[in-house]
Design a protein that fits this description.
The chain is α/β, with parallel strands linked by helices. The chain has a single domain, classed as Alpha-Beta Barrel (TIM Barrel). Helix content is 43%, strand content 18%. An eight-stranded mixed β-barrel has the order 1-2-3-4-5-6-7-8, surrounded by five helices. β1 (21-28) and β2 (31-39) form a beta hairpin. α3 runs parallel beside α4. The longest helix is centred in the C-terminal third of the chain and has 16 residues, at 206-221. It is globular, with a radius of gyration of 19 Å.
């Protein structure tokens, strides 16, 4: 009698492992707490082709593309976790969300019972640059449902503070996300051998740190939240706290200790 649940649990762990998942944290007055998960768009065949393993939900529709298949998988899985946590998803399609995605996501919310207010969609600047009314309407629909929209990869693509300011004034976006790799020292920069051997974690670029911290302050001045993602070291984590980012995510000993103490499951 226990074989089926064990097989289902094993398959769910296998499918979850196919997603690049990191904990997401909120920073308030210097206190860091776990609020949910970041999920990357690096999809495996398990996520794209199997559909989702929760027997309560319907099978994926044939017209659903990779992003919608990923959202169906995620919503069906994370709605089963007790408590209210956020799930932050970076879409693979740089032009998403479009009309078909918004329609499909509404259907997924209805079929899985996932609360829209627990979803943060990380979208690209290519999407925000589109000025057609119908494209803006699709973003407005998501915002009306309670979905948060965040601009991702700021400072890595052709980022524009003017565009961010315009979209912030329109109320279409909630926040802006930076990648922690922006503050790393370029590989081509020379360092004495003894410094490289003593502490490779300390090689952050002082100029880049000032630039990113100033950009973070400018975006917060617009009334938007800020996020530093893909933290991979203690020094990057310390920078995120010093620069007063509203949210951070990634993997380092300090953050993992917080996640364990908050008791969120590791997916």
């Amino acid at each position: 009698m226990r074989r089926k649940p064990r097989r289902a649990a094993a398959r769910q762990r296998e499918e979850t492992a196919s997603l690049d998942t990191q904990y997401r944290y909120e920073v308030r007055q210097g206190l860091v707490s776990t609020i949910g998960w970041d999920l990357s768009p690096a999809l495996s065949k398990l996520v794209r082709e199997r559909g989702q393993s929760n027997p309560r939900s319907r099978p994926p529709r044939l017209e659903e593309g990779p992003d919608l298949l990923m959202m169906r998988q995620i919503c069906a899985r994370f709605v089963q976790i007790p408590g209210r946590h956020v799930v932050c998803v970076t879409l693979a399609d740089r032009k998403a969300p479009d009309a078909s995605f918004v329609e499909g996501l509404q259907r997924i919310f209805s079929e899985t019972g996932f609360p829209p207010g627990c979803l943060k969609l990380m979208i690209y600047e290519d999407r925000l640059m589109e000025e057609r009314c119908e494209r803006a309407y699709q973003l407005a629909l998501l915002r009306d449902w309670g979905v948060e929209l965040w601009l991702t990869r700021f400072g890595q693509d052709q980022s524009s503070l003017s565009l961010v300011r315009e979209r912030a004034a329109s109320g279409l976006i909630n926040g802006v996300s930076f990648d922690a790799s922006l503050v790393l020292m370029p590989n081509a920069v020379w360092h004495p051998m003894e410094e490289r051997m003593e502490n490779t974690d300390a090689f952050l670029d002082p100029v880049a740190m000032q630039f990113v911290a100033a950009s973070c302050a400018a975006i917060r001045a617009l009334g938007l939240k800020t996020h530093l993602g893909r933290i991979a070291s203690s020094s990057q984590c310390a920078f995120g706290l010093d620069a007063e980012f509203d949210e951070i995510s990634g993997r380092c000993s300090e953050l993992e200790g917080i996640a364990q103490s908050d008791g969120l499951p590791c997916w």
